[in-house]
Design a protein that fits this description.
The complex is a heterodimer.
Chain A (H helix, E strand, L loop, with lengths): L1 H21 L3 H22 L2 H26 L10 H24 L13 H8 L4 H22 L7 H6 L2
Helix pairs in contact in A: 1-2, 2-3
Chain B lengths: L3 H21 L3 H26 L3 H31 L13
Helix pairs in contact in B: 1-2, 2-3
The chains are: A mainly alpha, B mainly alpha.
Chain lengths: 171, 100
């Protein structure tokens, strides 16, 4: 049952991703990417990581994709045609085929460590590790987010708008 | 029980699709979305490995990756908006200013 659902969701992930890759309309592609993320979170659930599945839906679908859709609609970009030269598409397909062949070979040739000590990781173990072994990276992510906020604000500010500092300096 | 290798093959397929999209699309926002696809395939690999070994370390990376992806989306979209303001286009073929 779990295995059948895994293949079903996997087919869903790949179909949605193919739609993202081969669509012309950016809005359609973004919606298909949302579908793809939902199927992926189903995969995480089946693998035994319900917390990651929830994070996937909340952060990717709820935050990142909404942001992307917002920008697409803000800039009103509907009809950019993809793939000018045939050579570029062929190069992409060839490179993808090489990458897939290498990765699949590695995946199938990897020694089977599973089933003996494998299994889903409980959430309590995750939280324990997050606040002990991984405390420094965890704190550093907040610095990364702060840098991203400042960078996005600086980049996104309209050049015509007066800077708040100058306004404050007025008598 | 899901075989780990099947999850890894699924992740490889997803990454390959992301590469095809990245080289095929011309819209900068579409390129960002294809990068998100590739990031997610990396997440899937980490989770499959975490499950195979029963260790917590493999779950940490997806957590941090999600944070990095959020930061990347924020800065990337701010760059997209700036580019659109300066050039009036989002076609990747229009941005050749660094070509020698």
């Amino acid at each position: 049952m779990t295995l059948a659902l895994f293949y079903l969701f996997g087919a869903g992930v790949l179909a949605a991703a193919a739609n993202v890759v081969f669509r012309r309309d950016a809005v359609h592609a973004a919606i298909w990417l949302v579908v793809c993320f939902f199927f992926l979170s189903g995969e995480y659930l089946l693998l035994g990581f319900p917390f990651l599945a929830a994070i996937q839906v909340l952060v990717y679908v709820g935050a990142i994709m909404v942001l992307i859709l917002f920008v697409i609609m803000l800039l009103d970009l509907h009809g950019l045609q993809p793939l000018q030269g045939r050579a570029r598409g062929a190069a992409g397909a060839g490179m993808a085929a090489v990458i897939f062949a290498l990765a699949a070979t590695a995946a199938l040739a990897a020694p089977a460590v599973e089933q003996a000590q494998g299994g889903p990781v409980p959430l309590t173990a995750l939280v324990d590790a997050l606040f002990t072994d991984y405390l420094l990276p965890f704190e550093l992510t907040s610095v990364v987010l702060l840098a991203a906020i400042i960078g996005a604000l600086t980049l996104g500010r309209s050049p015509a708008a007066p800077s708040p500092v100058q306004e404050r300096d007025l008598p | 029980m899901i075989p780990t290798s099947h999850a890894l093959v699924l992740a490889a397929l997803l990454f390959a699709l992301g590469v095809i999209g990245f080289l095929r699309q011309r819209n900068v926002i579409m390129l960002l979305m294809c990068v998100e696809l590739m990031l997610n395939s990396a997440n899937l690999v980490f989770l499959a490995a975490a499950r195979a070994h029963g260790k917590v370390d493999g779950v940490m990376m997806p957590l941090f990756l999600v944070v990095v992806a959020a930061a990347e989306a924020a800065v990337g979209l701010a760059l997209v908006i700036t580019l659109f303001r300066k050039r009036g286009s989002l076609d990747i073929e229009d941005f050749k200013g660094l070509r020698g």
